[in-house]
């Protein structure tokens, strides 16, 4: 440390500025190059492979550039066949639509269940607030896979949910819940609930409660005050929470494959099967590219909005 | 007013019940003597004994712990740099792009991340011969990349809530950028880095989808083994494993929350 500082004092001002600038770029480039190499460039590779054909080889797709040794030139072989196949077949369109539907319905229920919790926490005293917040965060730290798995034994034909409903006399026969879309909704709402509550809590906590008092003093009924004061003020949190749930839920794989039935169509599962069962890498890539295009809007929207909410 | 808050408490209470009932049920079932998980056969520790004798699960747990440790450490270093660069380095070329690369992995569906990284590794192998095959190294790279984003967000939010006067004072007193970072900024953001490390560790330990894409044969991580077992139905040993994991995590999280609460009180009395 002492040696370094005596050395730098001997440098001219210009040299010192240059070392600072070099150091600055070194610090900036380290994380940036990592992200470029392992987050951004992979998408270009996926796009490239989505334009090739599947074949039985290692790796199992046709090369994009074919080198002809006799004539010494390369031919570019691009096919849009995978995309055409996706658009022509009813199956993939249905899978995209049903993923969007399942994600939207689940996001709605997550909001309905998450809002009262976030509101209650935001309004609690300091100690209660710490305890309740920890109770929300705790499940988020425990294994996602195991929390999905927990629902398998609850929703079974002779599981706890059916047993409880039967002993309450609400149903005579056990319901088939596991392996239906309902189980998938429950799974998504359950596992993504903390992602909804935390941004909601952050905005509700900052809210000025005297505004609601004012609305009530002016004669607004609680419901009216809620709709015209609380909801508009909580909007950034609602948007952030919904996007944090909706975007990853669209591509969810674990929940539909453990809780859903064989007819629960979700695009994450289709991609998985296309890749691991059919070994059609180019088609799986095309599925991923279309999913990315569908989600790019919400992701950009989230990036612009999160300055206020997150 | 009273009615309003009763309804609020009831619906929030229902929400908390929804969050905790499955976990409590899982813990109780793990002590069930009966092989049929949902039929109660009396209390027993039998499944815990079987769990520790299951070599496949124990090996996979060891692989997962190693990967989680290395990935969390790498992600903490790179993520801290990324968070620091984004909130303290002013404007530079490519900043908007980098900010996007830092937040997008948080919501990116895992199947897309997994597939894209696998295809990258395959392309790299055929071009440079590295990484040769897939296994621990490729899983570590993949986990570091998506955990980095979490660390960067945590560090960034800590830095933005931090008063810059301390750093400015050190600079006025002649601290060089490097010593300023290591002597002033780093100690101030160390709680954020620690929680980022812990978050990365648990995320890596829990990841099924990305690891399935980028792992090679014979390199199964714990979630991959769990998934292949529970896919066929409920397994008592997995209940025991889940209980142990939930217990460890709960103790750690509760301890961390109390430590942070005490520290906050100390910092802003």
UniProtKB/TrEMBL annotation, chain A:
TM segment ranges: 25-47, 100-122, 131-152, 182-201, 281-301
InterPro entries registered for this protein in UniProt: MetI-like, MetI-like_sf
Coiled-coil intervals, chain numbering: none
One BP annotation, GO: transmembrane transport
UniProt entry keywords in alphabetical sequence: Cell membrane, Membrane, Transmembrane, Transmembrane helix, Transport
An annotated GO cellular component: plasma membrane
CDD domains: TM_PBP2 (cd06261)
Gene3D superfamilies found in the cross-reference section: MetI-like
Topology in membrane: Multi-pass membrane protein
Record localization: Cell membrane
Protein name: ABC transporter permease subunit
Species of provenance: Marinomonas foliarum
Automatic annotation (TrEMBL), chain B:
GO biological process: transmembrane transport
GO cellular component: plasma membrane
Membrane-crossing residue ranges in chain numbering: 12-31, 67-86, 98-124, 136-157, 178-199, 238-260
Pfam families: BPD_transp_1 (PF00528)
Major subcellular location class: membrane
Keywords from the named record: Cell membrane, Membrane, Transmembrane, Transmembrane helix, Transport
Signal sequence coordinates: none
PROSITE patterns assigned: ABC_TM1 (PS50928)
Domain of life: Bacteria
Membrane topology: Multi-pass membrane protein
Family: Belongs to the binding-protein-dependent transport system permease family. CysTW subfamily.
Protein name: ABC transporter permease subunit
